[in-house]
Amino acid sequence: MRLSDHILYERLKNVQLDLFPIDLDVTTLNTTITRDFMSNRYGGSSVSCFPTISEEKFRQHGYNDFMYLSMKYHPHAPQVPGAPGLFFQPGTASQRNTDDSELNENKIYRVFTRLSSGIWLKVGLYEFGTSEPLSVEEWTRKDMKTMRDIWSHKISTMAWGRGMRCSIRVRSQLGREATQEEYKEALGGDKKFLDVNPQEVSNAFLLGEEIFSVYTMRCVGYDIEFQKTIAHQFTNWAPPPRAPKKPKNATRVKKEEDDESKYGTDTVTQKRSSRIKQKTESSKYKSSKKRKVVEVEDDEEEEAESEDEV
């Protein structure tokens, strides 16, 4: 899921492309950490892009500028300390409507990039510049199809895509752009708008009805001492023990034991056999149904590709 080379160049051509100079030994510079470690030592959620740091944790260390970018969603995030990059935000601020997903353009962020599963690298202190949102012409480029499809799928299924799904559904129902009052009224309910499918999201981008914001990232600092600190701390850090999971069938097993003492072993065994048979038949049905769905999806993908070629 990457921007085409043409669009990438257009976004980064006015940003300093040279690496920000960092006077630090390579081993310490490239020391990676985990989100669990950062959450445990420095506070905040272990999954949010912009975790909220509690007052207690902030008093301990003095940092509240953390930003975590997964390359799953931000394929052009800096992957080398001091390198430039791009940050994406689909929709408007009112559509996102959550503090932990909103960029403050006037703030310098301490950025970590997820290089692979569980591996996060601190890349530096970054300022963000507003770039042009992806245009209709850019979205319609053939080399943008993969990115458009992936983001459309994510927006149609993820919790943070609810605002845009609401906008798309209300627009289709009204046959026009919703007023702010109409949009807020629809968004204020409990509906998740999961009936909005990826194709509807994709069409909204292609028609220019929804925006996809792009921000440039320029490294303006690094904080060598902080990197030395977390590199040392992580080396000596042991994850806190997790609470043991309750056995999945513990309640049912206990009930069966009680039933055996009450009704006898034969009766309970018959009930168990009947339940297993029902689950087996249900699994076969679901498996058959799933195969049919996959076949339909494959057909739809072929049709979509044909339409793009036209």
**Helix-strand category:** alpha+beta
Compute the average pLDDT: 82
Approximate shape: globular
Oligomeric state of shown chains: single chain
Along the chain, the helix and strand elements come as: HHHHEEHEEHHHHHEHHH
Total domain modules: 3
Query: How helical, in percent, are the residues?
Result: 40-55%
User: How would you write the strand order of the largest sheet?
Assistant: 1-3-4-5-2
Estimated radius of gyration: 25 Å
The largest β sheet comes out as: 5 strands, mixed
Strand % is 5-15%
Number of distinct helices: 13
Number of strands: 5
Query: Kindly, what is the distance between the CA atoms of the first and last residues, rounded to a whole number of angstroms?
Result: 22 Å
Low-confidence stretches: 289-310
